[in-house]
Write a structure and sequence with these properties.
Elements lengths: L1 H31 L3 E8 L6 H12 L3 E10 L1 E3 H14 L5 E10 L1 H4 L6 E4 L4 E3 L11 H7 L23 H26 L3 H7 L4 E3 H7 L4 E2 L2 H11 L7 E4 L4 H17 L6 E3 L7
Parallel strand pairs: 1-2, 1-9, 2-4, 4-5, 4-6, 5-8
Antiparallel strand pairs: 3-10, 6-7
């Protein structure tokens, strides 16, 4: 019995020592670190903003994180996820600086989510802007007619199959979809004007879907400065009042998840146009 008690005491002492060492190491690391900057990556087509929002929210609530960098390399995506990320960034900038660092492409929805940031930094050759909305509806009726296939439709309302690929759009249906597109486009324009503090009329003049280089976007007021990711980190450290070399925090996804995500984005890139209105810049070859 005495032997068991002795072993238990030794075990508890060891646990206590480990806990004490861990505590002091945490304090030392905290004192050695000048401050932390979190980098949130937004890559590919924006289909679901949940993971990005959760990551920003986590860093927003973490007092050790002095600034957040949103590294955007995206041609855009679905409307609602883009709007939800936009709103979360609006919340985050009230607590700490959020700096957008643009990669190769930060267009359409990729630009939309960047607007409310504390500062936007683009590379000189970044493709950005593309302030616009698009709906694409494939029409396979002619092909089906040639091979003798006919789609039978039973619907509850006149316009229930308005985006069906098995029929041609009528003029009245085109008018309905145009009004829908215009409504969402107005939301985009207002978001840019609000986020970038640019007069609404000035945004409307360039909100025709065209893209700009980072240099041109700076001239137009769509971005604040021209620079790479290292420069964005430097600016984030300054705005976060970090003295010395900042500690960079990046959440890494498992390789399998990245692989599956790539396949999923490839598939969604093909089917997304058939499903909804979206902010998306997809360059096409010119004749």
């Amino acid at each position: 019995m005495k032997m068991k008690n002795k072993k238990l005491k030794i075990f508890l002492i060891i646990i206590g020592v480990i806990a004490l060492i861990s505590f002091f190491m945490t304090i030392m690391e905290s004192s050695m670190s000048a401050g932390k900057i979190a980098i949130v990556n937004v890559k590919g087509i924006i289909v679901d903003g949940t993971a990005i929002i959760d990551e920003i929210k986590q860093y927003r609530k973490d007092n050790a994180i002095k600034a957040i960098i949103l590294r955007v390399d995206s041609p855009g995506g679905a409307v609602v996820p883009s709007q939800e990320i936009y709103e979360e960034i609006k919340r985050a900038v009230k607590f700490k600086p959020v700096i957008v660092s643009m990669g190769s492409v930060a267009a359409s929805g990729g630009y939309y989510i960047s607007c409310p940031a504390t500062k936007i930094i683009a590379n000189p050759g970044t493709l950005t802007g593309s302030i616009g909305v698009i709906i694409e509806i494939p029409n396979v009726k002619g092909l089906l007619d040639k091979i003798g296939v006919k789609a039978e439709v039973i619907k509850s309302g006149k316009y229930k199959d308005i985006t069906s690929p098995f029929k041609s759009l009528q003029s009245e249906e085109k008018e309905i979809l145009q009004k829908l597109t215009n409504d969402v486009h107005d939301q985009f324009v207002k978001a840019v004007a609000e986020g970038r503090k640019i007069p609404l009329e000035n945004v409307k003049k360039i909100a025709d879907g065209r893209v700009f280089t980072g240099l041109k976007a700076k001239d137009l007021g769509l971005v604040d400065e021209v620079g790479d990711l290292d420069y964005a980190i430097k600016i984030a450290a300054q705005l976060g009042n970090i003295k010395g070399e900042p500690e960079i925090v990046i959440k890494k996804s498992p390789l399998l998840i990245n692989f599956l995500k790539g396949d999923a984005e490839s598939l969604l890139k093909k089917i997304l146009p058939y499903m909804q209105v979206y902010y998306l810049y997809l360059p096409t070859p010119q004749n």
